[in-house]
Design brief:
single chain; mainly alpha; 4-stranded parallel beta sheet; globular
Amino acid sequence: TAKIAWTPLLGAGFTLSRSLLRQNEVRWTRHNWLRRMMLLSMTELDLGLKMWEGIKYGKQIAETTPSSGPFFIVGYWRSGTTYLHTLLAQDKRFGCLTLDQTIAPRQFLVDNPIRKSLLNRFGPQARPIDGVPLGADLPQEDEFALSNLTDLSCYHGLYFPSNFERYYLNHLDIESLPVPLQQEWMAKVRYLYAKLTLKYKDRPLLLKNPPHTARIGLLKSMFPQAKFIYLLRRPEQVYASAVEFKSALLRLLSFQEFNEEAQLDYSRQAYPLVMNKVAPALAAMNSSDYLVIRYEDLVEKPLKVCRAIYQHFELGLQPEECFTAYINRQSRVDNSSRRNTQLAPKWLAKEWQPLYDQHIQWAAQI
């Protein structure tokens, strides 16, 4: 029962949570009542820690910025970003955002073992569909943390699908928002990355966030030393995998009923929106600041991909033993794409394939 009620929005705080519930006119239903009760009752559980962190670290947070990097792993959803993130995170020279930190983005500088214990006990143990392990101290993407800090996160569309277009599409391209909203979003990103920099004592940050694929240019302007690892996967495989994964994710996270046909249409719009933002961003960047990797190379030759990344970004000696140990423990085949590629719609070849063909020319030869 507790796992059914769990939601990543537990760290949003009472004000943001209540605002989101009201804006989206969330009603009490058999589908959401337990999740809604947990959200409203637990959002301020760490209020004392939040206040103490502000007193102890507030000035340092305001004065801190990443000293190198960050390294951003980007790519459209279901392109292997999670696998590469977790693989590279085996190198402890990187600092990685954890699931616990996404749940407590305002107070994670003050350790709370009780929160971690509750998260490990009552939170989901694996992602839907692909079975990727989840745990308090395992790497997680920072869009979930941002969804707990601001209402400008596209992932609110997963929680409130009645307004999916507003959240998911409008908040992917931050540069399309009015300037005050852009500034608000950038302030939250800087706040989060400053805290991670303090937490990991200037270790370069290794961050994974598919929505950031549409924000590469903006992030580069915010963090001039940023590096980008951009993963590309064939569009028919992306579509097949994303359809099944997104449906499972909505069932897990949503506070509302949702229309699956409408979700497919939003996905159709999102891919060109994201991909059309990438080309000008990379063109304005020094080639030493980004590396494009094929999904197939990551799956078939993960160790060679790691070597290419370390060589390209001059990261020094790579810890091949820990990479090899992790690779040997993993099953890297995404079976959903193999089962469903025949379901790819006719419009995909016209609308998605040309964008993929343009980008794949930049891929590294592994």
